[in-house]
């Protein structure tokens, strides 16, 4: 039993909830869950509209 914290299924909140970061894999996973999209769709939306979460959400709406 090492002193590691137990893993949880709770989603990790991004450091800046107003901006979509594509640098940290945990942030990418969070935003893909949040927007119900693939990583490729997320990256394409950020490339088109920038990293503001509201703009990315709007770009991903079907």
Summarize, please:
48% of the residues lie in helices and 0% in strands. It is mainly alpha-helical and 62 residues long. Helix 2 packs across helix 3 (53-60).
Write up what this structure looks like.
It is a single chain. With 62 residues, the protein is mostly helical. 48% of the residues lie in helices and 0% in strands. Helix 2 (39-49) crosses helix 3 (53-60). It starts with 24 loop residues before the first helix and ends with a helix. The model has no long low-confidence stretch (mean pLDDT 87). This is DUF3606 domain-containing protein. InterPro entries: DUF3606. Residues 1-20 are annotated as: Disordered.
Strand content: under 5%
Q: Which structural class matches the secondary elements?
A: mainly alpha
Low-pLDDT parts are: none
Average of the residue pLDDT scores? 87
Gross morphology is globular
Listing every helix as H and every strand as E from the N terminus to the C terminus, the arrangement reads HHH
Straight-line distance between termini:
47 Å
Q: Determine the number of helices (DSSP H or I, runs of at least 4 residues).
A: 3
Rg on CA atoms, Å: 13 Å
How many strand units? 0
Q: What is the helix content?
A: 40-55%
The largest pleated sheet is described as: none
């Amino acid at each position: 039993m090492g002193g590691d914290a137990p893993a949880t299924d709770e989603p990790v909140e991004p450091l800046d909830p107003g901006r979509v970061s594509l640098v940290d894999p945990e942030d990418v996973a969070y935003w893909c869950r949040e927007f119900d999209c693939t990583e490729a769709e997320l990256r394409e939306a950020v490339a088109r509209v920038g990293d503001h979460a509201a703009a990315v959400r709007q770009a991903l709406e079907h």
